[in-house]
Amino acid sequence: MGRFTHDFDRRGFLRAAAAGTVAIGAASVAGALPAAAQTLAPDAGPHGAALSIPKDAIGIQLYSVRDKVYDLGFRAVFEELSRMGYKEVEFAGYTQNPSILGRQITLQEIRTLLDDNGLRAIGSHIGIGAFRSNLQQELDKAQILGMPNIGTPDAPSGTQTVAAYQAAAEEFNRWGEAASARGLKLYQHNHWAEWAFAQDRPEVRLYDVFLNNTDPAHVYLEMDVYWAFVGQFRYPGFDPAAYVRAHPYRYTLFHMKDGKTDPNAADGYDMTEFGAGDMRYQRFIHAIGPFGNHHGIWEQDTAPGTQPDPPGSLGAAQRSYTALADLLS
What we know:
The protein is an alpha/beta fold. The protein has one domain (51-327): TIM Barrel (Alpha-Beta Barrel), CATH 3.20.20.150. Helices cover 34% and strands 14% of the residues. It contains ten helices and ten strands. It has helices spanning 66-72, 74-84, 107-116, 128-145, 162-181, 206-213, 225-234, 240-246, 281-287, 313-327, and strands at residues 59-61, 88-91, 120-124, 149-152, 185-189, 219-224, 251-256, 258-261, 269-272, 295-298. The strands form two sheets. An eight-stranded parallel β-sheet has the order 3-2-1-10-7-6-5-4. Strands 8-9 form a two-stranded antiparallel ribbon. Strand 4 (149-152), helix 5 and strand 5 form a beta-alpha-beta unit. Residues 78-290 form the Xylose isomerase-like TIM barrel domain. This is TIM barrel protein. Residues 297-316 are annotated as: Disordered. Keywords: Membrane, Transmembrane, Transmembrane helix.
């Protein structure tokens, strides 16, 4: 987390490790898991085939450069990201070092900096607690910044039972209706724990409970591809890309995060900057189908402090942008 202020603990829910028995080909509560979500697609599509993640709107989750946002401020960071070629940003807090301006920056000032640098706010990660206590205020902030989506990186529930995930789905449905009324899309961002099996029903995958009990008109999904592959490693029996093929309109955002295979790691991978790993992104981008309204967002949780500084995390952002643009060409 560093000194970049947040309203949530991004990994708080990971403290509760999945305890359900691993079963393959789990059935969902609302019916059997679609065959598409169990079917693996080929490694690559036809050469030159149109991709559903456009390379001219590559985004960045600002958590990846949180140290620079705090130390240098939004102005300097936005200028650098725009120069690199990024077009969209996803927020992970709206604050910077107050000494930069002698006070905290305002939302309207951030919006002006976005506009001045040709950037668009595509979404923001908000803690579930803020949705419960200040939903309308969070929607206000989203509208000031001009973003079409607002979401949470928190798991739907910290209790890994079918009933808990069903109850969480109803809560998300209410929040989603409120967001829709304001012209916004509410989304949930996965980590690996959502792909676990329910403690009380080991044949049921928790992700399927949430997916099948949320209203597709009001609740959307941001697939973090890295964590989905980690989920596949920990709880086999599903194909991340097939979920997108089966529900293309619900997956408006993707976290394009890379990892190196490490069979000795609990997750099966070690997180790295994009292009330095070996996750099967070539296959993924061709396997998710032709729907053309997906947004690719680069994120690397470990970017700050993992390479020489300067340029530090901004160097990782530059190299990852180049690799991601090349992949999507």
